[in-house]
């Protein structure tokens, strides 16, 4: 049970583990006379309970990674969630814009005033975008393709531009032509269609033998596996 002034987790990990974190309140039954003077324990203290300190909780958050993510999201709106794919542990969780939690601690009018101010903020700092919002993950594999293309030398960061040719493969509307950075920012499908074609062209040899094409595909597969894809964790 709770009493006025008790601390309680009302959201996130503190709410989820509230029973473990809050501990147990101790109870002592005593006998008093008509004047309210304690005369001793009731039933020799057999009904008393000893207070128990709440458990210690260690999160999986990587402090350095968390700080780095928060720095990246300064003056931005959005979320970052970094997950260890082998364990499912959350390494970083950032929602931006955010607020100083100290503004909502303590008692009295100050907390109410701060909460009211945060609630009216048009940037919605109280809205936890990392947990309460939905964002499409995007074509994350394109970052791998970009790295392979750069390492192979079939594209570079400054001079390689591909147009968003929707006759090759469907795409959404965005600026064109694009360099590597623009292809990732805009998630351009035709850009990566043209890049993989360059990779398969085997350094400009557009008409490869079937055996050489198979070798080229195997080389590409090995490079992809080098990033951990297709490998059981």
From TrEMBL:
Alphabetical UniProt keywords: Membrane
Penicillin-binding protein transpeptidase domain segment(s): 78-232
Pfam family, one: Transpeptidase
Alphabetical list of InterPro entries matching this protein: Beta-lactam/transpept, Beta-lactam/transpept-like, PBP_dimer, PCN-bd_Tpept
Ranges where the Penicillin-binding protein dimerisation domain occurs: 1-38
Keyword Nucleotide-binding: no
Chief localization: membrane
GO terms for MF: penicillin binding; peptidoglycan L,D-transpeptidase activity
Gene Ontology CC terms, in alphabetical order: plasma membrane
Keyword Metal-binding: no
Domain of life: Bacteria
BP GO annotations: cell wall organization
SUPFAM superfamilies assigned: beta-lactamase/transpeptidase-like
Compartment list: Membrane
Name of this chain's protein: Putative penicillin-binding protein 2
Lineage: Bacteria, Pseudomonadati, Bacteroidota, Cytophagia, Cytophagales
């Amino acid at each position: 049970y709770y009493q006025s002034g008790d601390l309680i987790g009302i959201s996130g990990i503190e709410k989820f583990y509230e029973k473990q974190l809050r501990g147990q309140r101790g109870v002592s039954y005593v006998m008093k006379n008509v004047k309210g003077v304690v005369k001793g324990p009731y039933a020799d203290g057999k009904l008393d309970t000893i207070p128990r300190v709440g458990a210690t909780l260690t999160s999986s958050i990587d402090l350095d990674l968390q700080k780095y993510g928060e720095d990246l999201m300064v003056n931005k709106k959005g979320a970052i969630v970094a997950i260890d794919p082998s364990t499912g542990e959350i390494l970083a969780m950032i929602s931006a814009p955010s607020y100083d939690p100290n503004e909502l601690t303590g008692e009295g009018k100050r907390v109410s005033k701060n909460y009211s101010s945060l609630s009216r903020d048009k940037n919605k700092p109280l809205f936890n975008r990392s947990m309460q919002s939905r964002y499409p993950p995007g074509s994350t594999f394109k970052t791998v393709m970009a790295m392979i293309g750069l390492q192979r030398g079939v594209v570079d960061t400054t001079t390689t531009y591909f147009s968003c040719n929707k006759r090759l493969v469907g795409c959404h509307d965005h600026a064109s032509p694009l360099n590597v950075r623009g292809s990732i920012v805009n998630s351009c499908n035709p850009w990566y269609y043209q890049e993989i074609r360059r990779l398969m062209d085997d350094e400009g040899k557009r008409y490869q033998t079937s055996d050489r094409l198979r070798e080229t595909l195997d080389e590409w597969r090995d490079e992809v596996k080098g990033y951990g894809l297709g490998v059981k964790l």
